[in-house]
Amino acid sequence: MEGASTGIASVELHGRAFVGFISANELEQAIGRVAKELQVKYADKRPLFLGVLNGAYFFAAKLLERLDLECELTFVKVASYHGTSSSGSVTQLIGLNEKIEGRHVVVLEDIVDTGGTIAHVMDSLSDRHVASVSVATLLFKPEAYKQQFPIEHVAVRVPDRFVVGSGLDYDGLGRNLPGIFILNEPTHEPV
Ligand code: IMP
Ligand code: MG
Q1: Is 75 exposed, middle or buried (0-12, 13-18, 19+ CB in 10 A)?
Q2: What is the pLDDT of residues 62-83, one digit of tens each?
C-alpha cells in the first residue's frame, strides 16, 4: 500500500478512517513535473502566483522552491455571500492588493473538485485586464469537474473520493499529514 512509504498506513480524523493513497515522495515528483511545465511556459513573463487559502499553502511552497524563475506569490481567500444582485450570491477575492492588470496570473489550488471555487476566482479576475490566467492544482478530480475552463497544470489526478493531507483538510484536520490519504468509505459525497 502507498501509505507504507509515508510511514503511516492509516489515520483517523473526527472518527473516520483515511488510508495512505499517495506518498509524500510521489507528490514531490509530481509537483516537480508541474514546475517544469511552468518554467518553460512562463520564462521571462514574471508570473504572479495567486494561492487560494487555506489549502494551497503547501502546493505554493513546494512548487515555488522548484521554480528557477522570476516570479511573485500572493494569497487570496474566496468569500461568498448573498448580495442583492439577481444572481443571488456575490463572490469576492479577499486579500488581493497587488496591481494585477497586465500580469500573467497563475491561480494555485489545493484541489479542483466541481470547479465552483475556481469559477469564482475566474469571475473575480475577469474585469481586471490580466495578460493571461491559468490554473495549477495539486490535485484534480476530473470526474467531478463541471466547468468549461481548462485546468492546465495538474500534479495528480484523483478519483471522485474525499482526500486529506498536504494542505487538504477534513473539517480543519489533516492538513499536516505528509502525502495524501483517502477516506476509507464507499461514498462520493463530500464529508
Ligand atoms: P470545488 O469548488 O468543488 O472545486 O471544491 C473546492 C474546495 O472544496 C477545495 O478548494 C477544497 O477546499 C474542498 N474540497 C473538495 N474536494 C475535497 C477533498 O477531497 N478533500 C478536501 N477538501 C476538498
Ligand atoms: Mg477545505
Answers
A1: middle
A2: 999 999 999 999 999 987 666 5
